Amino acid sequence: MRTRYGSSAFDARFAPYAAQFEAFAHSRNLLIEKYYHEAPTWSFCFAHSRGGQAKLDLSIDDVGTVVLQTVWWIDSYREFTRSLRWGERIEVPGDGERFVTMLEQALRTVVSWQPGEWTRVATDYESIWGRYTEAQFRAMTPAWPLPRI
């Protein structure tokens, strides 16, 4: 398990579950990205075995509601598109152990998804991605680990 981004004011929300979440990430070879764009979210990031990248986003709001959102995407530099598969947004009552069970189930679900089962294909990336060669673009893509299932 590797972690990107540092501590923040959101640490208190995750503190009761942090050890369990970190153990889950370590056991499954996932990168934890904490508080990306200053959001109260831990993202469990990985390379999808069928290409692209995926993550399990676990958020805790200011009243303690825990929400899980999953996503997988594959970028096509040549077509300037991002094909995305979003999972169902789930609010989860319970405790840390229940959250880890939910993360385990979500990980198995995301790795079972197949290319072509996209929720959306986003276009119009040419103005952004086209500033770079394909090699430069690929070099900017984070190298996330393959998960252990």
Broad structural category: alpha+beta
Roughly what fraction of the amino acids lie in strands? 25-35%
**What is the succession of H and E elements?**
EHHEEEEEEHEHH
> Roughly how much helix do the residues carry, as a percent range?
25-40%
Topology, number of strands = 8
Count of individual domains: 1
**Separation of the first and last Cα atoms:** 14 Å
Mean pLDDT rating: 92
- The parts where pLDDT drops under 50 for at least 5 residues are none
> Globular, elongated, flat, extended or rod-shaped: what is the shape?
globular
Which tags fit this structure?
single chain; 149 residues; alpha+beta; eight-stranded mixed β-sheet; 8 strands
What does it look like?
By secondary structure, this protein is an alpha+beta fold. The chain has one domain. The chain contains five helices and eight strands. 22% of the residues are buried.
Q: Would you spell out the secondary-structure blueprint of this structure?
A:
Elements: E1 3-4, H1 11-14, H2 18-28, E2 31-34, E3 41-47, E4 53-60, E5 66-76, E6 81-86, E7 90-92, H3 96-112, E8 120-122, H4 126-129, H5 134-140
Parallel strand pairs: 1-2
Antiparallel strand pairs: 2-3, 3-4, 4-5, 5-6, 5-7, 6-8
Outline of the structure:
The chain has 149 residues and is of the alpha+beta class.
